[in-house]
Amino acid sequence: MDFKSFYLQLFLLLTSLSLFHPISSRDLNHIHGPSQFLFPKYLLGSRKGHNVEGTHAIKTYLQHYGYLSKNYNIIDTNGVYNNAYDEQLECSVKKYQKFFKLNESGILDRETLSQMSQPRCSVPDFFESEDNETSITTSNLHIRSRYAFFPGRPKWTDSRNLTYSLIKNFPEKFEAAIVDAFMLWFLRSRFCFTYVSEGQKSDITISFEVGDHGDGHPFKGGVLAHAFSPEDGRLHFNGDKSFSSDLEEGKYHIRTVAAHELGHSLGLAHTNIEAAIMYPTLPSNFSKILSQDDVDGLWNLYDNFHFSCS
């Protein structure tokens, strides 16, 4: 690898970033056309009071991403899936719709199923320890509208100079894109990042994985990648997805996905601001850079960076 220092890349990246502008919601409107549903189409129109085979898959999805309490039983004591569209499910659907700024009907309409089918990060949007997570009702929906953190606000405590390694035969063709992703955060924070060879001790490890890869979070459905909060350091791309360093139809922009996951590695959770790098979903053939929301979140988490890398 011939780019172990970020400073060697600074001029090139600054030149490339000058070609981009911050993204607004208007810029994203064109990507929300019809998509292939991740769930059976016969669930379209399901609402409270219905009992349709396959509804349990919606519950599993909402539970994984933090909209439905983990105390909710999707499988009953007889081992049978609970497909009842009850009040708890309706409230969870409304919370999901509110987060993604959809019509808050509580009904599985086309826009909601389409949003659920979007490729995304597998990190939850909400966590069980957050207020209103287990007792949400239709009258007390509250959705944050800015950056967020993991429960307990974990962060890197001992250093702002973090090392990273690319492991498990990481594709050489994507190495420069990973450097660029780190650079996005370097330019807007007081973190420094240094590459170390595989086998050396590193703060962040980056790899491609497939299916059930031993971290307790198997890749399923439309998941692109995931990363763990500080100071774990693991960052995994889904090896069954197609990535590209450029914008290509049907492929996911690896620098954008990497920058999102690095946000998790630094301690940021998901935001519902669509222009932000920490927004949970990303269509193919689309790129982003950091938004002010991302930057504000990191500076808040690290107390305005009272000390920096050295």
Automatic annotation (TrEMBL):
SMART domains assigned: ZnMc (SM00235)
Catalytic machinery residues: E261
Residue ranges annotated for the Peptidase metallopeptidase domain, each copy included: 152-304
GO cellular component, one term: extracellular matrix
Cofactor, how bound (note): Binds 2 Zn(2+) ions per subunit. Can bind about 5 Ca(2+) ions per subunit.
A GO MF term: zinc ion binding
GO annotation, biological process: collagen catabolic process; extracellular matrix organization; proteolysis
Residues noted as binding Ca(2+) 3 in the record, renumbered to the chain: G221
InterPro entries for the chain: M10A_MMP, MetalloPept_cat_dom_sf, Pept_M10_metallopeptidase, Pept_M10A, Peptidase_Metallo, Peptidoglycan-bd-like, PGBD-like_sf
Residues that hold Zn(2+) 1 according to the record: H213, D215, H226, H236
Keyword terms: Calcium, Hydrolase, Metal-binding, Metalloprotease, Protease, Signal, Zinc
Binding site for Ca(2+) 2: D203
Domain of life: Eukaryota
Family annotation (Gene3D superfamilies): Collagenase (Catalytic Domain)
Binding site for Zn(2+) 2: C121, H260, H264, H270, M278
Signal peptide interval: 1-25
Pfam families: Peptidase_M10, PG_binding_1
Record's keyword annotation contains Cell membrane: no
Cofactor: Zn(2+); Ca(2+)
Similarity section: Belongs to the peptidase M10A family. Matrix metalloproteinases (MMPs) subfamily.
UniProt xrefs under PANTHER family: MATRIX METALLOPROTEINASE, METALLOENDOPROTEINASE 2-MMP-LIKE
Name of this protein: Metalloendoproteinase 2-MMP-like
Organism: Cucumis melo var. makuwa
